[in-house]
Amino acid sequence: MLLIGAAGLAQTACSDGGATTDEGQGGSASSGTASGGDSSTSSTSSTSGNATTGGTGGGATTGTSGGAASSATAGGDDSSTTASTTATSSSSSGAGGEEPLGDDLPMEIPTPSNGNGEIRTQTTVLKNAKNGGQDVYDFNNQKIGVNNTADCDNGEGQKTVFEVEHGVTVKNLIIAGGLPGGNGIVCKGDCTLDHVYWEDVCEDAATNSADGATMRINSSIALHASDKVFQHNAKGGSTTIVTNSYIADFGKLWRSCGDCTANGGPRHLIIDNVRVERVKTAVAGANQNYGDTVTITNLHVKGGYDEDDDKPKICQEYRAVTDHMGESQKLHGGASQWNTATCRVSKSDIKRW
Q1: Which of 51, 53, 191, 269 suits 309 as a labelling partner, its CA being 20 to 30 A distant?
Q2: How far apart are CA 276 and CA 278, in angstroms?
Q3: Residue (of 157, 152, 199) closest to 177 by Cα position
Q4: How confident is the model at residue 28 (pLDDT cuts 50, 70, 90)?
Q5: Other C-beta atoms within 10 Å of 37: how many?
């Protein structure tokens, strides 16, 4: 795993184990952990021609806090382009998304600033300032993926592109589409993903994995997810917030884990000022039996919501299970639920565009 910043405490990936037939399983386990000890404070060597990354205090080879880019060769997936990696620290006050965020709603993914992009050999850990990294990483619209080899639509085990430590804000980043998108971004605590773009979601775009944490997605775009876009594994009153974003061609925008090891809740979703289209299953799937809540305001559906046919489904309620003891079940025949303790959404908040 590539480390940005000095070593922190050991981290354990959140994994479900085997999958069931319900779509709401947890995200893939991360491909590794950030190990403690002095030995990991030095920069990580790259293999197979792929660039390594670093940050302040960590002996970085490509990603510095001063904004100076160093050249690296992108490898994997037949890519041989030369890419430049710059992760700049624009502020030290961005813990958990506390810095002001814009309210613009992007509709097109920017042109990558590093050409065809960079495919890294390992998961990159974005360490916070406390652990020798940065609290804000601005990638200046670079496109980055990882040499994931697990099929996107075949269970779990996809490699994570970025692990994000508690309090870190990630800005202006494009996650490469398809196989190199792997398991996307995994937040290990409070995190903010601001102007982050997923070209073609592989397993999940982003996963909330730390109990009690808040994962914020703002002014972002995620396209072409065969199943979930945002996976929520964390329990203990953890929250996922999606604002000012455009999500298209997906199974579910958000799903509370239906069958995680030691599953539970509550988990909370807040959606405001989001545009969606080509919803295959539902906007949100929440576990009624674990006290989950879904709050939706200003959801703009392409072509509008068809009340007669209940299409697209907006908020579905489930009865989840733990430790793979059976299968998570849709309640109410899978119909959208309105103004319930779980689905806190009114039809008046679903708008046409």
Answers
A1: 269
A2: 7
A3: 199
A4: very low
A5: 8
Q: Quick check: 67 pLDDT over 50?
A: no
Cα separation values, 178 from 14, 150, 183, 256, 308, Å: 22, 11, 10, 23, 35
The amino acid at residue 137 is Y
pLDDT, tens digit, for every residue of 97-154? 344 456 789 999 999 999 999 999 999 999 999 999 999 999 999 999 999 999 998 7
Query: Would you say the C-alpha torsion 175, 124, 159, 270 has a positive or negative sign?
Result: negative
Q: Is the dihedral of CA 250, 203, 160, 176 positive or negative?
A: negative
Q: Which residues of 246-283 are buried (b: 16+ CB within 10 A; e: fewer)?
A: bbbbbbbbbbbbbbbeebbbbbbbbbbbbbbeebebbb
In DSSP notation, 5-47 reads SS--S--------S--SSS-PPPPPPS-----SGGGGSPPPP-
* pTM for the predicted model, two decimal places: 0.76
Instruction: Read off the pLDDT of residues 204-260 as tens digits, 9 standing for 90 and up.
Output: 999 999 999 999 999 999 999 999 999 999 999 999 999 999 999 999 999 999 999
Question: What tokens does 186 get?
Answer: 């995994």
What does the block give as tokens for 126? 């974005």
Euclidean distance between CA atoms 221 and 202, whole angstroms: 14
CA separation for the pair 162, 144 (Å, rounded): 9
> 105 exposed, middle or buried (CB, 10 Å; 0-12, 13-18, 19+)?
middle
Largest Cα separation within the chain, whole Å, is 62
Predicted confidence band of residue 11 (pLDDT cuts 50, 70, 90): very low
Three-class SS of residue 3?
strand
Give the rounded percent of residues in the chain with a pLDDT score beyond 70. 71
